[in-house]
Amino acid sequence: MKQNKDIRQLSLEALTTELEKLGEPKFRARQIYEWLWQKSARSFEEMTNLSKTLRQKLRDEFVFNTAAESIVQKSKDGTVKLGMRLQDGRMIEGVMIPDRDRNTACVSSQVGCSLACTFCATGFLERERNLEAGEIYDQVVLLNKHSLEHSGKPLTNIVYMGMGEPLLNFSNVMESIRIITSPEGLNMAPWRITVSTSGIVKGIRRMAEEGVKFNLALSLHAATDEKRDKIMDINLSNPLDDLMSALQYFYEKTGNKITFEYILFDHFNDTPQDADNLIGLYRKVPAFINIIEYNNVEGVKLKRAKSDRRDAFVNYLRSKNIEVGVRRSRGKDIDAACGQLANKNETT
Ligand code: SAH
Ligand code: SF4
User: Fold this and answer.
1) Which of 113, 125, 230, 340 is the pocket-test mutation for ligand 2 (most atoms within 8 Å of CB)?
2) Has residue 334 got a pLDDT over 80?
3) Which ligand is nearest the CA of 217, by number?
4) Which option is the CATH number for 68-345: 3.40.50.720, 3.90.1150.10, 3.20.20.70, 2.10.220.10?
5) Picking from 108-122, 233-247, 260-274, which range would have the lowest pLDDT averaged per residue?
6) Measuring from atom 12 of ligand 1, which residue has the nearest CA?
7) Is the pTM of this model over 0.90?
8) What residues form DSSP beta bridges with 289?
């Protein structure tokens, strides 16, 4: 049987060529492209300014690999978690987090994750496959609807902090950002987007080469190789020295400060000595530090640091003039917080 191509994998140029083959004028390609991205149509029937015959021709040639809303969970704090079904039946998750004047979408980049960080619920899942750019885009569109519903405002920010390691799905993630930020897509400013990585040196260097305009967050969580090796396997092949020079390079090429994400684990990385080690890394590359409250995960020995230890840690950093913020956990009642995305409610 003929395997039809996903129409959203075509660039505008490629779409133009395909339509020429179908005997259609050039401007049609732009019309369709607009439907695909700006108007986020998910079927050819919606493309009402195309003739019925053309719509039929398109249906014969192409498919839509969409992510469709399947499960909606709303937290008491306004956070919305979506379970989304892909065309192949697999499920992914995304979250909309309202916070004062911001509405942030947290999107997945893979089904599962191939890296098994010891503290992360997603890390317990196998990596099944990479998401296509269109599937990432769909998450943004669907979460945007919930943003509008919640506060009458569209999304203000997007973070690639859902399931998966974005830099191990490099080209699709880059393509999704290209469309999200393009006038033909959602026209969102790139500085409103943050890609979070567990620390893939090659990927960081590649983004630097490309001179990307969005923000980069590094999931640091431990400030010595010895400790980081214990909780993140990826550190064995991408140790801190290599990571820091890749980040320096990223800053050189893009001018964007890096965010260091640092989950505080009780009696693991929350002592003054740990803070000093963290400051040592902070001095190597222009950065902010984001202290993250751990969402305890069943079966994980590491636990969230007590609030007095957290406050002492943060105050110590502040006393050394470090730029530091604290990220509180959100959507806990629905397991929507970071590291809790593990398709718990999956139905088949
Ligand atoms: N794979 C990428 C992006 C997805 S994880 C990365 O690791 O950066 C998004 C963030 O959530 C990372 O900083 C990750 O370390 C953090 N995280 C994972 N499990 C968590 C948990 N249980 N509580 C709080 N943050 C968690
Ligand atoms: Fe994967 Fe990120 Fe979770 Fe590590 S923290 S297992 S890289 S999703």
Assistant:
1) 113
2) no
3) 1
4) 3.20.20.70
5) 108-122
6) 219
7) yes
8) 260, 324
